[in-house]
Amino acid sequence: MATKLNLPEPNFEKFSIRKQCQLMNVDRNHFNYNSIGLKPDEIKIMQEIDLIYTTIPTYGYRRMWKELLNRGFELGRDRTLKYMQMMNIQAIFQKKLRFQIHLIKFIPIFLED
């Protein structure tokens, strides 16, 4: 996909925007798309999540949500999960132990002479 540096130029005389997008394999809707960005209240919530996570990294999204409610923010669990996923934050806890073959000690029964 094209980056902002090589997007089609609207004032280019030789080719129309349609033809430029076709030559660069870029959809025209990507050319006209302008990202809105985050709202100030969303940024404030994400900063608070970051603050809570740095002090207590064992909180998952449900405890994080309750902590945000206690601190006066009004949002749902799903919104808290979305912000934590956007920030790539997960609770730090011991994961479920899975069966690992390299931990099993093999007993050489059939190797006896």
Characterization of this structure:
The protein has 113 residues and is mostly helical. The termini are far apart. The longest helix has 16 residues. α4 packs across α5. The chain is flat and about 75 Å long.
Order of helices and strands: HHHHH
Q: Quote the average pLDDT.
A: 81
Ends distance? 65 Å
- Helix % is 40-55%
> Tally the helices: what do you get?
5
Roughly how many Å is the radius of gyration? 26 Å
Q: What structural class do helix, strand and pairing data support? A: mainly alpha
Q: Give the overall silhouette.
A: flat
Largest sheet descriptor = none
Count of discrete domains: 2
Strand % is under 5%
> Stretches where pLDDT falls below 50 for ≥5 residues?
none
Number of strands: 0
Task: Please give a quick description of this structure.
This protein is mainly alpha-helical and 113 residues long. It contains five helices and no strands.
Topology readout:
Layout: H1 17-23, H2 28-32, H3 40-55, H4 61-70, H5 77-86
Helix pairs in contact: 4-5
Task: Fill in the keyword field for this structure.
single chain; 113 residues; mainly alpha; 5 helices; 42% helix
